[in-house]
Every structure is written in structure tokens, then in C-alpha cells.
Design brief:
mainly alpha; 0% strand
């Protein structure tokens, strides 16, 4: 029961000075403090509070090896990038780095997140990454790439058509061998 009570504290009313406090926590040197801060931001986002003022502070936390924190930051980005598309472009370099990680789960996470962000520059980079991801050695990454191509196609068919036949050929390969 105490875990539930602790989780509910993320949804409490905003206190005076809380924005500065959370911003400080997002930039803290300790990983657990930053992780809790991102959880607070996501909780505020969930109940409809404006969390756009945290954007830069949150995306700074993409530069982490901690998968849980990275997932939280990616969740925030998927939801907030359409409100701040010019700033969302700052995340592209980290996405590209994560797409070439040795960890297939991280590659898939980055691919899935990029495909969910409806910012032209991010989508352009996602298309380039997907061309490689469709041929990835890991079946989970290939499957994620196929789903991501379909997701991008739904919102921007022309960008996927520019991929040519590679999507069709590799999607067939991926589905049979993954």
C-alpha cells in the first residue's frame, strides 16, 4: 500500500516553487534524483498540466545509459515534441546514437520513438535509420522497424514511398525471419 501512496504523490497539486525545484532535480548529478524528477514531470503531463517549460531539462537526460530513465524521457518526447518541434530537433543526435547501439532493445526503443514523433526533421532521420533497421541482425529490431514504417506511412505516405522497394522487400524478409 505504501508504494501506491508514494506513486500518488506524483499527482499532487503544484506547490509554489515546484517548477524550480523539479528543474533543479532534472539537472542533479545523482541518477535516482533525475529519474524521480522525470517521473514527476510525466505525472504532471498525464493530468494535463503544462510541462513544456521542462523540455530542455528533460531531453538533457537522454544522454544516459540507464534504460528506465531513457524510456521515461522518450515517453515525454513522444508527447511533447509536437508542441515544441524546433526544440525536439535537438534530440536527433541522441536518437541516431541510440539507433547504432550494441543493445538491440535500445535500438528498437529509439526507432519506435523516432517514428512516433511527428516532426519533419525527426521523421527524415527516422526514414534513414529504418532503411538500415529493416536489415538489422536482431529480429526484434527488424519487427520494430516494420511497425515503425507503417506508423510513419499512416501520417506521411510520401516519405515512406521515397524508401522505394526496400520497405516491401525487407518487411517480407523481417516478417518471415523474425
Amino acid at each position: 500500500m505504501s508504494h501506491f501512496t508514494d506513486s500518488m504523490s506524483y499527482f499532487s497539486n503544484t506547490r509554489k516553487g515546484e517548477v524550480a525545484e523539479i528543474r533543479g532535480e532534472l539537472n542533479d548529478s545523482k541518477l535516482p534524483v533525475r529519474k524521480e524528477a522525470v517521473k514527476k514531470v510525466i505525472a504532471h503531463m498525464t493530468i494535463g498540466k503544462d510541462v513544456s517549460s521542462y523540455f530542455i531539462d528533460v531531453i538533457k537526460n537522454m544522454q544516459t545509459e540507464d534504460i528506465e530513465l531513457k524510456k521515461l524521457v522518450y515517453l515525454y518526447l513522444m508527447n511533447m515534441s509536437s508542441f515544441l518541434p524546433d526544440v525536439a530537433i535537438l534530440s536527433v543526435c541522441t536518437f541516431m546514437k541510440d539507433c547504432s547501439s550494441d543493445n538491440p532493445l535500445l535500438r528498437a526503443l529509439a526507432i519506435r520513438t523516432m517514428a512516433s514523433i511527428k516532426v519533419d526533421k525527426v521523421v527524415e532521420n527516422a526514414i534513414e535509420v529504418l532503411k538500415t533497421a529493416l536489415r538489422d541482425s536482431d529480429p526484434y529490431v527488424r519487427k520494430t522497424a516494420v511497425i515503425s514504417v507503417a506508423k510513419i506511412y499512416k501520417s506521411d505516405p510520401e516519405s515512406v514511398k521515397d524508401m522505394g522497394n526496400s520497405y516491401h522487400l525487407y518487411s517480407q524478409y523481417s516478417l518471415r525471419n523474425g
